[in-house]
Amino acid sequence: PSRDALIARLPKAELHLHIEGSLEPELLFALAQRNGVSIPFASVEAVRAAYSFSNLQDFLDIYYQGMSVLQTEQDFYDLTWAYLERAATDTVRHVEIFFDPQGHTERGLAFETVLDGIERALRDGEVKLGISYRLIMCFLRHLSEDAAFATLDQAMPHIDRIHGVGLDSSEVGHPPSKFQKVFAKARELGLHVTAHAGEEGPPEYVHEALDLLQVERIDHGNRALEDAALVRRIADEGLTLTVCPLSNLRLCVIKDIGQSPVRKMLDLGLKATVNSDDPAYFGGYINDNFRAIADALDLSEAEIVKLAENSFTGSFLPMADQIQHL
Ligand code: ADE
Ligand code: ZN
């Protein structure tokens, strides 16, 4: 239908994408062989079959295990380049990519191995695919704030190559307040700040992300809808929410795709965007996410265009660059 054609050709930005979550089973297998890393799967099909999750933690266990095949700078390049080529086919023009340095430094890799490989692919993507980028370093919230500070210290010699910080991993039991000091430091350094909040955690965590971390965006934000005062605040401040429909479905945050919060957010005048989160694990890239909700939420063409526009105006690009894409 014409909606699919519109989605296919609309320029868009992806604002919520964990680069390690774009590791497709085929590349996972190839890297395991290349690096002599053993993985507990006999085939690509067996890997895909294991991607059945009943909550966020279920997924995270498999996601951190999958990272073990990433060993060299070239591995991070190949991972990132594969994502960018795929994103280009979805007419993505700008990406703001999350990476999880602690998932790698905890395994003994150098921070630089990770950063250099990802960034080299991003630079190639800018030249060869015309996709601009920002790079967002996430702190793993199941680890301590001291560990986050240690990661920020490792990043310091390269801080001009990192545009923002985020907060991800197991949400419940690890509220934003745990990371108040390290986010204050990041802001002092002039970094952009965002955080996963309200994916599984309560509205209170979204309040904390805003009040204590002073985030510029909310990643997911589903459960913010439970709190009317919070909804009003998000609307008044024009904050962007990076919603991930297929992720929500596969992690059982919603029961069916028709329950995606995008419908309510649009109706409430909130600035929602559509993103793929961890596409290799959740069965779809950005256009797959758009198509899934376009049908289920019966989005109008104007609403689809609005979601794509929100992705640029909600990005960390300077205003002049945002406007170029509208
Ligand atoms: N890390 C990768 N994807 C994530 C998600 N959806 N929520 C929290 N942490 C993550
Ligand atoms: Zn995420």
Written account of the structure:
By secondary structure, the chain is α/β, with parallel strands linked by helices. The protein has a single domain (2-24, 71-315), classed as Alpha-Beta Barrel (TIM Barrel). The protein has helices at residues 2-9, 25-35, 44-50, 56-66, 73-89, 102-105, 111-129, 145-155, 180-188, 203-211, 228-236, 245-250, 262-267, 279-282, 286-296, 301-313, 319-324; strands at 12-18, 92-99, 132-140, 164-168, 192-197, 217-220, 240-243, 271-274. The chain has an eight-stranded parallel beta sheet with strand order 1-2-3-4-5-6-7-8. Helix 1 packs antiparallel against helix 15. Zinc ion binds at residues 16, 18, 168, 196, 219, 277. The record marks 220 as: Important for catalytic activity. It is an enzyme of class 3 (hydrolase). Residues 11-326 form the Adenosine deaminase domain.
Task: Describe the secondary-structure layout.
Layout: H1 2-9, E1 12-18, H2 25-35, H3 44-50, H4 56-66, H5 73-89, E2 92-99, H6 102-105, H7 111-129, E3 132-140, H8 145-155, E4 164-168, H9 180-188, E5 192-197, H10 203-211, E6 217-220, H11 228-236, E7 240-243, H12 245-250, H13 262-267, E8 271-274, H14 279-282, H15 286-296, H16 301-313, H17 319-324
Parallel strand pairs: 1-2, 2-3, 3-4, 4-5, 5-6, 6-7, 7-8
Bound molecules: adenine and zinc ion.
The site of adenine has 11 residues, from α4.
